[in-house]
Amino acid sequence: MYKIFMVEDDEIIARSIREHLQAWNYDVCCVEDFSNVVAEFVRFDPQLVLMDITLPFFNGYHWCSEIRKISKVPVIFLSSAADNMNIVMAVNMGADDFIPKPFDLEVLTVKIQAMLRRSYDFAGTGSMLEHKGAILNLNETTLTYQEQKIELTKNEFRILEILMENKEKVVSRETLMTKLWESDNYVDENTLSVNVNRLRKKLEALGLEEFILTKKGIGYRLG
């Protein structure tokens, strides 16, 4: 089931689109906090975004630009402001399509289906993990925090992925080494410590102090 994230402040339009797409077996989430759209986007981790232009706090161009900093997920703008200037602006901000309001729900559905087919038929769906504002992009093996993006080595990425998947728990050193071994990256006790220390330095350079904590004699957990 594909997940669709809708940023639309007109409740009637949002409800109508959501109910229609749910009937087509899509999982649809409508944004609730228009002052923090990206946080809700990350939590829902959708495969497609429907974006209005005129919104409370910040417009759709702003949020499309912010999403583009962390994800390549398709974004379709839905707006009555369908003049050439707005269409060009939307595309420049990272939009993949622009559908003028009013529109037929069946036409919207066909365009969504086509966009999803083009985007995901030959690639896995996008996915992210988030902790304290740090966003791990599982497709790009990158970490983004406060508009800064860093590349991670395979081992650094895998360590962070495992910790973020288990962020409420302490992950033992044995578990980390086993998981890294499964990914064809052999590590022993010393190699694990070296990788964790290097990863910590990268995180600290981003401003993420004490992001990874040591549980003495057991393993690691997120701070």
UniProtKB/TrEMBL annotation:
* Residues that bear 4-aspartylphosphate: D52
Q: Which UniProt keywords apply?
A: DNA-binding, Phosphoprotein, Transcription, Transcription regulation
- Gene3D superfamilies (alphabetical): 3.40.50.2300, Winged helix-like DNA-binding domain superfamily/Winged helix DNA-binding domain
Q: What InterPro entries does this protein's entry cite? A: CheY-like_superfamily, OmpR/PhoB-type_DNA-bd, Sig_transdc_resp-reg_receiver, WalR-like, WH-like_DNA-bd_sf
Show where the OmpR/PhoB-type domain sits.
126-223
**Record-annotated DNA-binding residue ranges:** 126-223
State whether keyword DNA-binding applies. Answer: yes
Q: Does the keyword Transcription regulation apply?
A: yes
The Response regulatory domain, residue ranges: 3-116
Against Pfam families, the record matches this protein to:
Response_reg, Trans_reg_C
Role noted for this protein: May play the central regulatory role in sporulation. It may be an element of the effector pathway responsible for the activation of sporulation genes in response to nutritional stress. Spo0A may act in concert with spo0H (a sigma factor) to control the expression of some genes that are critical to the sporulation process.
The identity of this protein, by name, is Stage 0 sporulation protein A homolog
This protein's species is: Maccoyibacter intestinihominis
